[in-house]
């Protein structure tokens, strides 16, 4: 059964989003400490993208994986990694953007995101594709599409 949603393949959608987030991280990294407005603009774009991405995973993908004994622990770990990224985003949002401390903390965020993406693409996504039936994949895709329309509104 082929999904009739705007997201026919949730894994490919998330991989594409990972690439978009990597580009946004790179844009922030290219900003200079003295260019506060550009750094703020790039950081806010990244923050919005990470929050929307985390919501899609936490409310659509991970619950489906949590129901499978083979992936329940992976899903729980991924949610915890999201919590850590969320804390870093909050801390960065409350700091002065033109400081070395902000730059150091941003490097920690970028590394955390990169490690999480690697785990998802090498462990979680293959398990998702292996263990979920087509109807379950379609349900995840439909839920992701609803979440997207809510965050875009």
Quick description:
Helices cover 82% and strands 0% of the residues. The chain contains 5 helices and no strands.
Q: Under CATH, the topology is which?
A: Four Helix Bundle (Hemerythrin (Met), subunit A)
The first-level CATH class name: Mainly Alpha
Architecture (CATH level 2) name: Up-down Bundle
Span of the ends, CA to CA: 29 Å
- Shape summary: elongated
User: What amount of the residues lies in strands?
Assistant: under 5%
Q: CATH superfamily membership, which one?
A: nmb1532 protein domain like
How many distinct domains?
Answer: 1
In helices, the fraction of residues equals over 70%
The stretches of 5 or more residues where confidence is low (pLDDT under 50) are none
SSE topology:
Blueprint: H1 10-30, H2 36-66, H3 72-93, H4 100-131, H5 134-152
Helix pairs in contact: 1-2, 1-4, 2-3, 2-5, 3-4
Descriptive account of the structure:
This protein has 153 residues and is mainly α. The protein has one domain: Up-down Bundle (Four Helix Bundle (Hemerythrin (Met), subunit A)). It has five helices and no strands. It has helices at residues 10-30, 36-66, 72-93, 100-131, 134-152.
């Amino acid at each position: 059964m082929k999904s009739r949603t705007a997201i026919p393949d949730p894994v490919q959608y998330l991989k594409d989003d990972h690439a978009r987030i990597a580009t946004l991280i790179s844009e922030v990294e290219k900003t200079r400490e003295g260019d506060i407005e550009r750094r703020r603009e790039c950081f806010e774009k990244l923050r919005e993208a990470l929050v929307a991405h985390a919501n899609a995973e936490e409310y659509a993908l991970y619950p489906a994986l949590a129901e499978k004994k083979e992936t329940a622990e992976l899903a729980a770990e991924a949610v915890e990694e999201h919590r850590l990224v969320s804390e870093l985003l909050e801390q960065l949002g409350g700091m002065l953007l033109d400081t070395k401390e902000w730059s150091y903390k941003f490097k920690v965020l970028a590394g955390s995101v990169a490690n999480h993406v690697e785990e998802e693409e090498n462990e979680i996504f293959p398990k998702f594709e292996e263990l979920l039936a087509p109807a379950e994949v379609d349900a995840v895709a439909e839920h992701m599409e609803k979440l997207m329309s809510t965050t875009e509104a």
